[in-house]
Structure formats: structure tokens, C-alpha cells
Amino acid sequence: MTTEFTQLNLHPQLVQAVTEQGYETPMPIQAAIIPLMIQGLDVIGQAQTGTGKTAAYALPILQNIQPEQNHVQSLIVVPTRELALQVVEAISGYGRYRPARVLAVYGGLAYGPQINRLKRGVDIVVGTPGRLLDLMNKGVLNIGQARTVVLDEADEMLSMGFIEDIHAILAETPPDRQTALFSATLPPEIRRLADKYMRDPQAITLGGEQVTVAAIDQRFCVVNQNDKLAALTRMFEVEEITSALVFARTRAGTNELASELMARGYSAEVLNGDLSQEAREQTLKRFRENKLRVLVATDVAARGLDINDISHVFNYDLPDDSEIYVHRIGRTGRAGKSGIAITLVAPSERRRLKQIEAFTRRKISQVEVPTEEDILNHRKDRLVKQIGVWLQRGRYKKEREIVEMLLQEGHDPVEIAAAALKVARAEEKQRPIAPISPVAEPAARKFERRKNQSSGKGRTSANEPVSHEPGMVRLMLHMGKQQGIRPGDVVGAIASQARIPGYSIGKIFIQEKHTLVDVPEEYLPQVLGKAKEVHILKQPTQLQIA
Ligand code: AMP
Fold first, then answer.
1. What 8-state DSSP symbol labels residue 331?
2. Which regions of 378-511 does DSSP assign to beta strands (E)?
3. Is residue 51 lining ligand 1, measured as CB closer than 6 Å?
């Protein structure tokens, strides 16, 4: 049986506020934590963003606030300014009919206004550790009478190096205070912190899987590392993306990805450590207001990010830590909504994927990268659909006039329509379908093949026109040392233009005026079809059987 908000011993004014926010029933963490916190017990909630943890501690805090007090009654310590602002906003909403004086404090803000607010009286302070300590040291923030202290996203604070600050803050609070600790993971330092400062804490564990991952449609596709960008842009063509978060490992990676997506006409921006706080907030604002469809982020920059309605999370690469994976994909499928998480897996990352599946105890389903044909069909279907919508609306008076004018000029109606579609599709040119090579064979097989090549029986001589390697055919092209070509130029040109894996190309002998290159027989039709004329060092040259 589901618990109702009315069953949690919450003040009716709080129940009314959450109901008006559209919360129908308490989320599991709320049902578990609220009654405990109302009683004044210490709690440890192992839960991530998206589970409803803010309301789980904010509602009891609001319930327990005593009016007209002249001291800070509750302190909420959070890792980022971003989260501080969200928490304050949430508390103001929940406290609509039972108001409390809430203040966010974090680095980067001018001290003056914060100090004035503190002097006038604040019931709940929400802040980042460094700024809280600063204000305490300045003698303007006194937490000596705080009844409740919340440590939110404790593991994030730990990984950001705030643990000493947290010890220092807790040391200033009264020993009989109530302490609530929320953390997605409970590493040893966090457990030690709990042992030191908490009294008989009630631990509530919500497996990330049940809470966040279950509602998410998790998919992966295997693609060569070099083709990931191409695969991502192809996915963008066929997925119904309303807003997407793309995770990349490095800052440089985020920049490159965002520019590639922008070049293809998607509104994308980066969220990484290079951004100033102001730029970061601006970017997030645009994203929330749907002026920006794609955020390309690093894990660090995406910390504490609370954005709902993300339709897709893309993992451009796999994080080393399975928990980070859960964290990433937990950004979609929020508050009971379904979401899609797509991971691009290089062959070398397959093992990591298995580990993640084992960790989440959920199967991630394999999908294929959309083919060129899929994309072209998709584009066509979309165009036909759009035309259908306009035909139904029938509001194209001005356009009709143009058609009539063209008809009068003697053009055929079908020709006019076809030409108009050509114009309408011009923007597709911005989005060329990037080529993708077949996935590289696993390293073990590659090794086998190399071994055979060097075992003697496959040995060949440069001067022999026929390849002696089993399964290989020798081709020739009319460029050589005189033109300054190197083996890499040959592999690159053939592999990319014929779309075959580079490693499958065999021996290469560069002579004065020509070059011999061995390619697998199975790829011959592709090589002689698509790449019969290859461009090497920007010059066209013919490939032919030697
Ligand atoms: P949090 O984990 O606190 O960041 O909350 C995640 C999201 O869930 C926020 O957007 C909340 O507004 C929303 N939320 C929290 N509690 C409920 C609830 N009981 N019903 C529906 N949505 C909720």
C-alpha cells in the first residue's frame, strides 16, 4: 500500500504546499525519512539526486521550525552553489503556507547582503562549507543553537575536499543536535564522520537501481572509438530528443563535441570546469528554459545538477566507476518519468559495460548505430509528416501565391513541388551523415592474424605482384616515394573512403612511382567500388589489382 502525505504526521500546511506542487504521493525516501526526522532522530539516507531527498529533509525541518526565534535553527550543508540555490527554492515552495526565513550562502557572493540578512534573523541557512566557515569565522554566523544539521550529497563534499571543513562546522554545533546525512555512496570517510557525529542513526538505503535506474531505458551500441562522434550525431538524427545531456570524460572532449553538434545545427553548449560561475548559471538557465537542447558536460561540472525533463543521457565514454554511470543516467527518468540513456561503447570498453550491468543488476540492451538508410528514411518521414501537418492547417496563402505564379509561368505542378522540397531540405546539407567503419575485431583475433602473418607462410616480397598472404589481394596505385606518400596515408585513404577497418589492410610497399597494398579479399568489392579512385595527399589516384 502506498503511503500518503497525510499519513506522515506532517502539518496540513506543508501537505497543502506539496500537493499544490503536484506531488501526489511521497517518494520512497520521503515516506521513510520524514517520520523519523519529525521525531528528531538522526538519519542516514543513501540516495542520489532525483530520489526526492530534498523534500525528505526539508519538510521535517519546516515542521520543526519554531517561529520568532533569534538564532539559526537549521543548517544545511551542500557541495555546490547550484544545489544551495535549489534547496532554498525547494524550501520556499514547501514553506509556502508555513514560511521560514531561509538564506543561501556560497562563495562568490558579496558578503554585505548575506551579513545583513543574518543580522536580521534567519531560521535556515543553506550553504557551501567554505563560505559557512568564513561567515562563522567573521563572527556573523552562529550555529551554536542549531537543532538540525543536514549534510547533503556528503560524498560529493568529500570528493571536493570539504571533509575537514565539515568536521570544523559540526564541531561548532550543539552536541544534542539532530543530524541527517544524505549521500549516494558511503565511503569509509563518510562512515567515520557518521560514527563520530551521529547518535544511533537510522540508515535508509534506497538502491539506486530501484529508484532511478528502473525507469530508464538503457541502451548501448558498440562503435570504434574514432567513430563515436559520428555515431552520436547519427543518434541525434533518429532519436526524439527534447533535451539531452552528453557526458564526456575530459574538458577538451566536451568542447570538441559541443562544437561538432553546433556545426550540425543542434543548440549545444558545454558545462565544464572552464566556465565561470556566472557563465555556468547562464548556460543552465538557457537549458532549463529549453533555449538550449544539448548540454555537454564533464562529471565534475554536472555535480549537483538538478534538471528535470531530460529526455536523453548520452555517455560518450564509459566512466571508470559504475556509481558514476548510475549518477549520470539518473539525470533522466526523474520523478517517475521515463528516460533514455544511450552509451557509446568502444570494443575495449565492453568489459566495463559488463561490470556496470552487474552493478546495476540490469541488462543494458544493445542497439545498432542508425545506418545511412535509416537516417535518410527518417528525414524523409519527418518531412512528409511536416507537410501533412501544413496540408491540414492549410495556412499558406502567401506560399500558394508563389505556386500560382510559377504555374502561370508554365511550370509543372509536380516539378514545382519537388523543387520546393529541395529548397526545404537545404538545411540537411549542414548535417552530412558521418561515415562509420565496421567495428574493430577483438584484440585477441587481431593478434592471431598478426601471428599468422609473421609465421612464415604468409611472407611475401615487395616485388611480387601477387600477395602470398592468405585471403589478401594485392592492389597497386600510381603514387610512390616521389610523391612523398607514407603507409599511413594509404591506410587512411583506403580505410576511410572504402569504409573498411584500417587494421585489416595488410602489407604496404612504397616504390618510387607506385605503391603496392594488400587488402582482404572480402573487402575487395568495397575497395574497388567506393574507393577505386582514392585521394591521397589531396591527389586523386586509381586503385587497381596489381
Ligand atoms: P530531489 O531528489 O530532491 O532533487 O528531487 C527530485 C525531483 O523530484 C524534484 O524535481 C522534486 O520537485 C521532485 N519531487 C520530490 N518529491 C516528489 C513527490 N513526492 N512527487 C513528485 N515529485 C517529487
1. T
2. 472-477, 508-510
3. yes
Q: Is 104 left (phi over 0), alpha (psi -120 to 50) or beta?
A: beta
CA of 35 to the centre of ligand 1 (A): 17
| C-alpha cell at position 295 | 548540454
**CATH 3.40.50.300 describes domain 4-210:** yes
Q: How far apart are CA 60 and CA 150, in angstroms?
A: 11
Q: Which residues contact 458 (CB under 8 A, 6 or more apart)?
A: 452, 468, 469, 470
Dump the DSSP string for 502-525.
GGG---EEE-SS-EEEEEEGGGHH
CA distance 176 to 124: 18
Give the torsion sign (CA, 227, 228, 234, 235).
positive
Beta-carbon contacts of residue 287 (< 8 Å; ≥ 6 apart): 243, 269, 295, 307
Q: Ligand 1 centre and the CA of 9: distance in Å?
A: 19
What pLDDT score was predicted for residue 501?
72
What pLDDT score was predicted for residue 302?
Answer: 77
Spell out the SS3 assignment of 523-546: HHHHHHHHCCEEEECCEEEEEEEC
Give the residue carrying C-alpha cell 515552495: 93
Between CA 375 and CA 222 the distance in angstroms is 18
The domain at 213-370 falls in which architecture? 3-Layer(aba) Sandwich (3.40)
Q: Which fold has domain 443-545?
A: Alpha-Beta Plaits (3.30.70)
Residues of the chain with pLDDT under 50: 1, 208-212, 443-462
> Residues of CATH 3.40.50.300 domain(s) within the chain?
4-210, 213-370
Q: Is the CB of 306 under 6 A from ligand 1?
A: yes
**Helix intervals (H) in 264-396:** 277-288, 322-329, 350-360, 372-393
CA 536 to ligand 1 center in whole angstroms:
57
